Amino acid sequence: MVTRGTWSVRTRLTLIAITVAVLSGIAITVIATLALYSLAGSFRAQEVTNAALETIDLTMRGRLPSVLPQDGLDGVQVLDSAGKVISSTPNLRGSPRMADFVPPAGSVSTARELCGIPHLPDCTVVVAFRIHQPSGDWIIYAADDVVPWYVHPGLFAVIVGSCLLLVVLAGVGAYQTVHRALLPVNAIRNELAEITATDLGRRVPVPAAQDEVRGLALTINQTLDRLEAAAEQQRRFASDASHDLRSPLTAMRAQVEEALLYPEDTDWKAKAGEMLVSLDRLQAIVSDLLMLAKLDSGAPARKERIDLAELCEEELARRRRGVEMVRELEPGVTVLGNRVRLARLLTNLLDNAERHAAARITVSVRADGGTGKKIGGTAVLEVLDDGAGIAREHWEVVFRRFARLDASRNRDAGGTGLGLPIAREIAQAYGGTLGLEESPQGARFVLRLPLNR
């Protein structure tokens, strides 16, 4: 069963155009017919009047015969002042007066449409004339056919034919217009149907016309650009993740196989300790992957007001002192966020700094442009190490998942390659930014978050 929901846009718009054209045609036909009918009725009454002028002239001259000529009329009667028919056309001889109305006082003529007059057509236009005579006013009645509602068959056929032509032209024009308008849409649809997950480099055609379809094509191409970038990042991430997961698994497998080859010579306690190192690394990678999955999915976390200086004091107090920790913490710098995730962000920055610091790490907290009690503004947290630093062209590379740099900052020096990406994701989740900035020595990571009163 075909329903409106199964019709194409082209069909629906064409039907709408035809419906509007049909309604317009009906309205035009009715209005034109009524206007022509009124005009033709007035013209017919004038024709009857003109045809009756000869009879009026004969009456005024006293030359009125008992039998009047037809003169193209259906019938004429002349009544004297007593209301007696004294003259008429041949078809009305011996008939009573055809009407009983007379022109109103102060008027010499009036017209009415009457039906059922003997010896005349079913309905006629009767015009009554008042003539002043010495004996009193005489009345002359002249009758002729009424104008039909359609005025004239040929004229009505022209009007109806014109309206039908209007409907046909509207339907054809709407169909062709919609067809041409949908050609770019069909091209976009066909191109999208051929684009697959492995062929995201293709783009839909962009029409030259500056219209909504062009905007749609541009938006689709921008979406495909983002999808291609996301797919490439996903492929790269999957490749790097599988490599990083394979490394500890391969190490553990080699250790187990070696122990099985020489079970009597194997120190199982030492071997278990070695395997725990690989397991710890494997667990760290899996934990980081789970954290990234939560951040990517936008999983909500409870928010609270957090004093960054207090958070830094707590995290620094529970860490083992591998290098000197310098604190520059301004109290009262509060932000809105999740304590566990912001602690994870700080821990990742500190872990990264410890792996590459020579002897000292500086942790600072301040409110940008004022104190932490200031409404608005930015809370700034910096972690600066005195290591070899990172080249400017690699400032964004280090925030890529499983990024690889040169040996001096290589992620394999104890990290999973996911700490900094996780830290940036957490910062962005709370409306902040995390990046590298200029420093005289080492790497300077700067976190900026909106201040909260």
SSE topology sketch:
Elements: H1 9-61, E1 75-79, E2 85-88, E3 109-115, E4 123-133, E5 136-145, H2 153-194, H3 212-261, H4 268-297, E6 304-307, H5 308-317, E7 324-329, E8 334-337, H6 339-356, E9 360-368, E10 378-385, H7 419-429, E11 433-437, E12 444-450
Parallel strand pairs: 7-9
Antiparallel strand pairs: 1-2, 1-5, 3-4, 4-5, 6-8, 9-10, 10-12, 11-12
Helix pairs in contact: 1-2, 3-4, 4-7, 6-7
Attribute tags:
alpha+beta; rod-shaped
Oligomer: single chain
Structural class: alpha+beta
What's the end-to-end separation, in Å? 64 Å
* SSE string: HEEEEEHHHEHEEHEEHEE
**Uncertain ranges:** 370-374, 407-413
Number of separate helices: 7
Alpha-carbon Rg, integer: 51 Å
Main sheet: strand order: 2-1-5-4-3
Average pLDDT rating: 83
Biggest beta sheet summary? 5 strands, antiparallel
Helix percent reads: 40-55%
Proportion of residues in β-strands = 15-25%
Write down the overall geometry. rod-shaped
How many DSSP E strands? Answer: 12
Write a brief structural summary.
The protein is 47% helix and 18% strand. The chain has 453 residues and is of the alpha+beta class.
What does this structure look like?
- It is a single chain.
- By secondary structure, the chain is α+β, with helices and mostly antiparallel strands.
- The protein has seven helices and twelve strands.
- A hairpin with a 5-residue loop joins strand 1 and strand 2.
- Helix 4 packs parallel to helix 7 (about 420-430) and helix 6 (about 340-355) runs antiparallel to helix 7 (about 420-430).
- The radius of gyration is 51 Å and the shape is rod-shaped.
